[in-house]
């Protein structure tokens, strides 16, 4: 007697193909930076203890070195007052504006200027809203006015550098010249913030906030200019 045929074992179901992650776009980068900026803003406004303690530790250590190294401190004052001063950064933006204007790229020139203006307004608005006091020292090596959070130097340098790098890339700059511009830009943004903490006029979280707010603004500006909303205007 013939045995009944055994049905073949079912094949294991193949796993569903994983969905590749979406491309990194300026809008997505801006969203992530915006969330990080708001989280830091909330922590500072709530006077979160661990953050304030970390700020104090960093500031005390750097101030001790600043007092002990007057030559290096003087160099930092030159950098913060002349090289990376917000008005120096705005002058670079003005130069870019006029170059674009006379190249007949006037909508782009206005967009760069508008981004810089928005950066200044956001910086001053957040300063007024948070009202954070600056570090106070019995033996200060520098002085500054207005509220501390966020650092205007760090934010203005980040916005200016970010927009200028975007313009260079947009106009086809590449190779060694692009790498040089990238290095100079990154050093300028980071240096503008570091000098403020070294000189004892900002907490470290003020500077980080300046970098985050500035980078967020640049990313959103680039995303908006590259979107369809401005296609007719351009």
| Global mean pLDDT | 91
State the share of residues found in helices, binned by percent.
55-70%
N- to C-terminal separation?
A: 85 Å
Structural class: mainly alpha
The largest pleated sheet is described as: none
Beta content = under 5%
Would you identify the regions where 5 or more consecutive residues have pLDDT less than 50? none
SSE blueprint and pairings:
Blueprint: H1 26-45, H2 49-68, H3 70-83, H4 86-102, H5 106-130, H6 152-170, H7 175-198, H8 204-226
Describe the structure.
This protein is mainly alpha-helical and 234 residues long. The chain has eight helices and no strands.
List its salient traits.
8 helices, mainly alpha
Quick description:
The protein is mostly helical. It has helices spanning 26-45, 49-68, 70-83, 86-102, 106-130, 152-170, 175-198, 204-226.
């Amino acid at each position: 007697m013939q045995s009944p045929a055994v049905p073949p074992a079912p094949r294991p179901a193949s796993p569903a193909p994983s969905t590749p992650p979406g491309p990194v776009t300026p809008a997505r980068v801006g969203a992530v930076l915006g969330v990080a900026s708001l989280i830091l803003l909330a922590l500072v406004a709530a006077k979160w203890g661990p953050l304030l303690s970390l700020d104090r530790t960093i500031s005390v250590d750097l101030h001790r070195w600043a007092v002990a190294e007057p030559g290096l401190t003087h160099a930092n004052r030159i950098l913060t007052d002349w090289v990376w001063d917000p008005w120096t950064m705005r002058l670079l933006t003005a130069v870019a504006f006029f170059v674009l204007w006379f190249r007949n790229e006037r909508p782009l020139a206005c967009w760069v200027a508008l981004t810089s203006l928005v950066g200044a307004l956001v910086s001053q608005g957040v300063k007024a809203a948070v009202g954070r006091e600056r570090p106070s020292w019995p033996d200060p090596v520098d002085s500054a006015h207005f509220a501390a959070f966020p650092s205007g130097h760090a934010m203005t340098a980040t916005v200016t550098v970010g927009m200028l790098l975007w313009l260079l890339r947009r106009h086809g700059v590449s190779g060694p010249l692009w790498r040089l511009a990238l290095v100079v830009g990154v050093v300028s943004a980071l240096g503008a913030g570091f000098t403020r903490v070294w000189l004892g006029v900002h907490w470290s979280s003020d500077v980080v906030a300046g970098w985050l707010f500035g980078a967020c603004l640049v990313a959103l500006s680039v995303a908006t200019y590259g979107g369809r909303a401005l296609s007719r205007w351009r």
